[in-house]
Amino acid sequence: MRTLYKIALLVMVAIMVVSCGTKPTTPATQQIATAAPATAAPATAAPATAAPVKPVTIHVLTMDQAGLKPAEIDQIVKDFEAQNPDIKVNMEYLGYDYVHDKITTGMAAKPPAYDAAMVDVIWPDEFIKANYLLDVTDRVTPDMKTNMFPASWNGVTRNGKVYGMPWLMDVKYFMYNKDILQKAGISAPPKTWEELVDQAKIIKQKGLAEYPIIWSWNQKEGVVCDFTVLLFGNGGAFLDANGKPAFNNAQGVQVLTWMKQTLDNKLSNPSSVSSDEGAVETDFLAGKSAFAVNWLFQYSDSNDATKSQIVGQAAFAPMPVFAAGAAASIKGSSVDGSSSFAIMATTPYPDQTWKFLTYLSSNAVQIKNSAEMLPVWQNDFQGDAMKTLLAASPTNLVTVPAFQAQFPFANERPTVAYYNEASAALQLAIQEALTGVKTPQAALDEAAATWVTLAAK
Amino acid sequence: MRVHPPFLEMKKNNPLPPRRRFSLRAQDARTAWLLLIPSLLVILGVTLWPIIYTFILSFFMAPTGLHQVRTFVGLGNYLAMIKDQTFWETIGRTMYFTVVSVGLEMVGGMAIAQLIHSHPWGWKLLRFSLIIPWAVPTIVNGAMWRWIYNADFGALNGLLMQLGLIKHYVPWLTLPYLAMPLVILADVWHMLPFVALILQAALAGLPLELDEAAAVDGANAFQRFWKIRLPLLHPAILVALVARTVDAFRVFDIVYIITNAGPANKTLTITYLTYLNSFPWGKQGIGAALSFLISIFTISMALIFIRFLYHPEETQ
């Protein structure tokens, strides 16, 4: 019997050991404190004939949607590993919609699943409050601080502390189908949303598109992005000077009313109400729409013959604004869709992870991959560096001027820790108005009340 | 004088060694427990502990994150949900989904089971083909139906257009009154075979004599089904009904894929609301409370079905 007890005890111990895992769990904050003297230690600390160091593996989560494709990032990882044999990078790709939840569940695991993750511009406040992100202020070099776009740093900086490395600068663009406009006899794309309606009517009357405009207005973040574009283009804002919701004022209601009218007039594709950005791209690339609002990836895909039936037909124009907005000297409007990579506060390998992230966002890597994603380095858009950028890809001859024209007008969504819930309330309000469940005023008022409640908690 | 059986006499004369203190039965039980401990630990770790932990969590305000302060709120999370209009709207919507989808699955499943039981031409192929929709993972099923319903490229619009039933493509998933029925249709297509196979297996096990005797006595097909087969099928119906009701009430994945709870929350179900609170909104306490409210609803429904349908004496 005693032997049996011993065997049972061994089995239990074995189970506990296995379940504890083997990944080191020393938090990054502790490791910084202990690692610093080690790295600064004199060479005598290590024997001259030290055995080869076993490479450490860092786990990085990112999206498979906007920006670089997984195959392109895999190639960057391969190059990085060749230059850094002591670091292995395990990339994990997910659709954008799943990344946020994967980060939160991954951070609840013991040990946490990721050393670094892509962080969308709307998540830092929540993640900082949740203590997920490592403060990397001291790691940012003056070169990075000076030469990367200030807006890219704004996305990851709170109260003077930096929590990530800028990675992707993106805004929503207005794209149109040149062939359809030409056939309709329209010489130039619209400058105002009112002009867009007029042009769409002509296109519809001539039978060139049943629904000339397509949007991402389904019950996801995309509808808030599009609403941001329209709201600021009408002189509106999310919050007033006192931080109270202002999107339910006259400008906001006008915007939502206009959105509903374009659906009722059958100028906007009714399927917009169930479409995300991927569905918008599918529709636009099939040649079914004359106008679309989407992220940069749609342009490069439009020239990919394996995906697109409109190769060479897509073009950018500055995002229109409302006539009232133009009268109020609003020159343009878009929405910031940038993202960064952040080091998880729990990583045992902050130095190796930072090394990888700086490589990922390095000037050379970003220029090399600029066909899919323009660099976060503002000095690439100046002087001789600009020539290098334009020469890096034929696409850049079109996307770089489009970016320069649109990016200065990118508007931010509110930076609050409860953004996801606030956004959900706004998504619901917009959908209720678009589907006729409520009037635009009633729907926006209800969302504004929810925002007030959330802010008070 | 009391007479001891011979073996007790032997025991008296030859006492067991002092170490042997347990009976054989007790030793067997101890051995069984020792062998069970590893499995019990695993079960405890992966099922029981999360349930206990979630139950404890439901009494706290527990924001997502590391080193977060959890505040004890007692029944606060439960009361907050019970007072919340969205919660009751969501419960109503989930009940609608459950009643309609399970109802259609039970009726349709019974009809198909009867059809197979009557062994028409090709019945084996029919029974085999039933497995296909059921075998498709729910996520794949959801993605497939999302494409079928797609306004611009979907098969449903294509079919209706070919038949001349519509003149313009219909944006099915944008219509508040149609979104839930369309999700139900996708679920019924997926789960009806499960019910049909259970009922068909039960039908195959029924004694033929009763049916034949009733036919000889002049009972028509409907009377034979209603008076003989249906009562005998009660246990199988109960199993299918309880399994499907509990499953349908917790519907999440098919909604997540097809509609994302839209348009305008018209397909927001109670499990989806739990997910929103637990992960995107980081309110784990509320999410935990909702999980337990779901459990209370499903257990209540299961008990009601058992109370009204489980009559073992009738099937003797």
Strand content of chain A: 5-15%
Low-confidence stretches of chain B: none
Radius of gyration of chain B: 28 Å
CATH superfamily of the largest domain in chain A: Periplasmic binding protein-like II
Q: Which blocks of ≥5 consecutive residues of chain A have pLDDT under 50? A: 15-26, 29-48
Compute the gyration radius of chain A: what is it? 25 Å
CATH architecture of the largest domain in chain A: 3-Layer(aba) Sandwich
Run of helices and strands of chain B: HHEEHHHHHHHHHHHH
Extended strand count of chain A? 13
* Helix proportion of chain B: over 70%
Largest sheet descriptor of chain A? 5 strands, mixed
General form of chain B: globular
Strand residue percentage of chain B: under 5%
CATH topology assignment of the largest domain in chain A: D-Maltodextrin-Binding Protein, domain 2
Across the major sheet of chain B, the strand order is 1-2
Mean pLDDT reading of chain A: 89
Q: Report, as a whole number of angstroms, the end-to-end distance of chain B.
A: 51 Å
Spatial order of the strands in the main sheet of chain A?
Answer: 2-1-3-12-6
Number of strands of chain B: 2
Integer average pLDDT of chain B? 89
Explain this structure.
In chain A, 47% of the residues are buried. In chain A, the strands form 4 sheets. In chain A, strands 2-1-3-12-6 form a 5-stranded mixed beta sheet. Chain A starts with a helix and ends with a helix. In chain A, helix 10 (221-232) crosses helix 19 and helix 19 (419-434) runs antiparallel to helix 20. In chain A, strand 4 and strand 5 form a beta hairpin. Chain A has helices at 2-20, 28-40, 70-83, 96-108, 124-129, 142-147, 150-154, 178-183, 193-205, 221-232, 250-264, 277-285, 297-302, 323-327, 350-360, 363-368, 383-392, 396-406, 419-434, 440-456, and strands at 56-63, 87-94, 116-120, 157-158, 161-162, 165-168, 173-177, 213-214, 291-294, 314-317, 334-335, 339-343, 410-411. By secondary structure, chain A is of the alpha/beta class. With 316 residues, chain B is mainly alpha-helical. Chain B has 2 domains: 21-72, no CATH class; 78-315, MetI-like (MetI-like fold, Orthogonal Bundle), CATH 1.10.3720. Chain B has 14 helices and 2 strands, in the order ααββαααααααααααα. Chain B has a two-stranded antiparallel ribbon with strand order 1-2. In chain B, helix 4 packs parallel to helix 8, helix 9 packs antiparallel against helix 10 and helix 11 (234-249) runs antiparallel to helix 14. Chain B is globular, with a radius of gyration of 28 Å. Chain B starts with 5 loop residues before the first helix and ends in a 7-residue tail after the last helix. The model of chain B has no long low-confidence stretch (mean pLDDT 89). Classes of the chains: A alpha/beta (457), B mainly alpha (316).
